[in-house]
Design brief:
Helix content: 25-40%
Shape: globular
Radius of gyration: 17 Å
Structural class: alpha+beta
Largest sheet: 6 strands, mixed
Strand order of the largest sheet: 3-4-2-1-12-11
Strand content: 15-25%
Order of helices and strands: EHEHEEEEEHEHEHHEHEE
Length: 259
DNA sequence: ATGGTAGAGCATCTA
């Protein structure tokens, strides 16, 4: 069995002790992390190595930053879109082979406001993600795209859809970026396993007591091609990791794959 | 009433 997980940690400096405790508790084999908020030379690769993980990190410090931890192999790392002619100005994408899996870790842009330049960047970023998949995968590959997509795929993934009509994360163009991945053969493995589960979220605003009031969004996704989706034995959003002192505003998504 | 909190880093920017 391979245990795969993704977690937006919202600063690894602030979260390292919690992350290490969580690794000890959950014992994932492969982890995609987002929002490390670290430069590459500040990434604690040795700390993760001492816990048995190889790692790769792509970050510029302060904001963004993505990483992959693996004790199932870690080769062929690509940082960003792998296009030197037009590098992404922000560190939001990392790709590697972990054993028989191609793992694509994503931290999609937030978008900030509908119609803003940041929103346009978000939509262009998803378009480039499709081009990236063409470049790094072949039909039939076992591929996982996982991370913080900053899009709630359907209204079932939103605590109050009406409240988001004027906000990002639920607009038709953003959702089309996810459905286009579905049309490419990528299954949302959590939703596939729990098609009717209501009020299951992965992110809650720190403000207003949103976590305790159940006001969240499901924006952290594990998308997988059929050879991976067919191996899913278990999937869960680890709400326990959102509790207690100094939590991230996101909960991890954990997926077990049969060998 | 356009609010609230957390993180980076030291004035605001980002989410």
């Amino acid at each position: 069995m391979i245990r795969f997980a993704t977690w937006n940690v919202n600063s690894l400096n602030a979260r390292q002790q919690r992350v290490e405790q969580w690794l000890a508790d959950i014992r994932p084999d492969i982890v995609c992390m987002q929002e490390t908020k670290l430069a590459d030379d500040a990434f604690p690769a040795l700390a993760f190595e001492s816990l048995g993980y190889e790692s790769a990190h792509h970050g510029a410090g302060r904001w963004n930053g993505v990483a992959i931890l693996s004790r199932a192999g870690l080769t062929g790392v690509t940082l960003g879109f792998g296009d030197d002619a037009a590098p992404d100005p922000e560190a939001r994408l990392i790709t590697a082979r972990c054993g028989d899996l191609v793992v694509v870790g994503v931290y999609a842009p937030n978008g900030r406001a509908l119609g803003s330049e940041h929103y346009e960047y978000k939509l262009r970023w998803f378009a480039r993600l499709h081009d990236h998949l063409d470049a790094v995968t072949e039909p039939g590959d076992a591929v996982i795209i996982a991370g913080d997509f900053n899009v709630a795929p359907t209204d079932a993934d939103v605590y109050d859809p009406a409240a988001f009509v004027t906000e990002t994360h639920t607009s038709a163009p953003e959702r089309e970026a996810i459905t286009a991945l579905a049309e490419r053969g990528y299954t949302d493995v959590f939703r596939a396993r729990y098609p009717d589960a209501p009020s299951v979220y992965s992110w809650w605003d720190y403000r207003r007591g949103d976590f305790h009031e159940g006001r969240g969004l499901r924006i952290d996704l594990v998308l997988a091609t059929e050879p991976v989706a067919d191996r899913v034995e278990w999937a869960v959003i680890d709400r326990n990791a959102r509790k207690g002192t100094q939590p991230s505003d996101h909960a991890p998504v954990v997926v077990d794959l049969a060998d």
